[in-house]
Each structure stands twice: as structure tokens, then as C-alpha cells.
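Sequence only, no structure available. Ideas?
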Amino acid sequence: MAATDFHFVRDEMAPVLPPPAATGGLVGWVRNNLFSSLTNTILTLIGVIILRLLFEPLVKFAFINAMWTGENREACLGHHGACWPYITDYFSQFIYGRYPISERWRVDIVFAVFALGLVPLLVPSAPFKRANVIFMLIVFPVGSFFLLTGGFGMEIVETSNWGGLLVTLVIAVTGIAASLPIGIVLALGRRSKMPVVRLVSVIFIEFWRGVPLVTVLFMSSVMLPLFLPEGVNFDKLLRALIGVTLFASAYMAEVVRGGLQAIPKGQYEGAMALGLRYWQMMGLIIMPQALKLVIPGIVNTFIGLFKDTTLVLIIGLFDLLGQIQSSYTDPTWATPTQSHTGYLFAAATYWAFCFSMSRYSIFMERRLHTGHKR
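Reply:
I predicted one. C-alpha cells follow.
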């Protein structure tokens, strides 16, 4: 009998089997991350109890006990949950404010163009990136200004009639787009070897960081006109945009400066050894690395700026939160749960925008983590 008769020789690869349920899949993840030790098990149980105490009342108010249909306050009286018909009835005002109903198509066009231009701008592999950047930084702001304010045959709409999510996005997007480049210039100025440039940058940053945003908005709206020549006046929304941008730029400058200080000295020396000039060194070598390191800080500043737009209510600009608060004076929907429902809607809206920015920053961190992941 041949020797091979006592052996089994496999002539094809065995199929790849999934890991056991105890080490892979959902059960494995729960076992390894939540119940891997006695301490983790206790902390997990405490966390579950806290989440239940926090979210159970919220779920009951927002969904289980909520009223979903109705024509007026009578539909929500007697219910202990959210009054969502009130949100439905006021939804258009929460988005457009007092913008004329017949002209709201202009706002819709601005929103649509902004979304269509922003999506490919945020996708790293999208083509025509340079043309997209030029469009979003030059063409879109100018076109949106004339489209929203009117002129050229369209009805003139004063900014005092703007409100709701429109004002929130105008202030937030303008502040975000303008504060980053100004903050980069200020950060470079604070590290400059020229004493005058460094002194001016330090004074600017420390002044705006030492003043509350409420004070900045109040001064820009109430006090600034007192120092202007007679007959000269700025639009209230424009004054708010300038104040918010300068305020955010000071914080952005410190975030960027932290990234510049984290770059090893050898990077500067290597760039100078290649014969690169200052702006070439900063634009090609130093700044890309610095900005990559401080993505969390930059996005954190953007999120704070987006939420700080609610402060413009003190100068008479009705953003989303201000528009919601102004709706409480309508007796048609006056119920004990009206304010709770309005604030819940505002919180959900702000959370959606801020969470989206946070997730995108995490995506960019993972994509650009090369050499820094630990």
C-alpha cells in the first residue's frame, strides 16, 4: 500500500469562516468594550441608568405623548407632550423670517446653490476643485447678496425683514469663511520677527478675546453709529457680520498659532535650506501641516461660532432662536408646552448642523492622519 493512502491531501482552500460570536460581531464588541472587566461592567450599568434617566422623559415628550396634528392650541391642550402642529404652522417663518412670501423662491435658490456647491467642495476626490473654490468664495457670495437683497428688476428686501434659519446661516457661513484666513494672517503676524507687525497682531487678538461677543454686538449696533459722520450708516446685519468675524478671527488665530508651534524646527530649516522664500515656505511646507494638526480646534471654533449666532437677537436680528421666541406671543398656539416644543425644535436643528461639522472633521482627521496617528 502506498504511503499516500494514509494521508489526506486538500486540493482546494478551505472556506473562510467568521469569528465566533463571543469574539466577533456585536456580541464580541459588547464583550470587549463594555463588559471586559468588573470596573467596565459597573461603569456600563451606571451609564445605562443615566441615559435612561435623561432620555426616557425626552422620548416621552417628543414622541409618545406628543400631538402631531391640529389646527390651533385646542389640539394640544390637555397633552403633556410636544405640540408639533405649532412647529408645522410656523415652519416657514422659522426658515425665512418676515421675508416676503412671494419672494421666498430667491432664498430657496440660494440654499440650493449653496448645498450644490458645498457638497463637491467637501468631497476630496471631486473634480474641478479649483473652479469650485473660486465659485464658492467669489461668485456665490456676490450672487447671493444681489439675489437676497433685490435689485435688477427684483423687489428690494431690507435685511430687517430677514430672519429665521436664513439669518443664522448668513452670519455663520460668513463668519466661518472670513475668520479662517484672517486668523491665519493674525497667527503669522503674532509669530513675525517684525516688532510692529507682532505688536499689532497681539493687541488685536488680546482685545477681541477679552471682550464678550454680546458686548461686541451691542457696540457694533448701538455705539458705532455715534462715531460715524452724520448721514453715514451701516446696515445692522452688516455690522453684526463684521463684529462676529473679528471676534472669531481672534480665537482662530490662537488655534492656528498652536499648530504652528507644534511643527518641528527642522521643517523650517529644511524649507529654508531648499531656498524657499517665507510665503513659499508657509504655503507649501508649514501651514498645511499646522492646519492638519489643529483640525479639531478649528472645527470647535466653527461650532462655537454657529451657536453664538443666537446672540444677534439683542440687536434686533431675529435668527432661528429669535424667530421661535417671537412666535410665543401668538395666542393661537399658546399652550403650556409651546415653549418646550419650540426650544426642542431649535436644539434639534442646531445639533444637526453642529454634529455634521463634527463628523466631517473626524473624517478629515482620519484621512489626513498620516504620520500622526497613535
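The chain is about 65% helix and 0% strand.
Hope that gets you unstuck.
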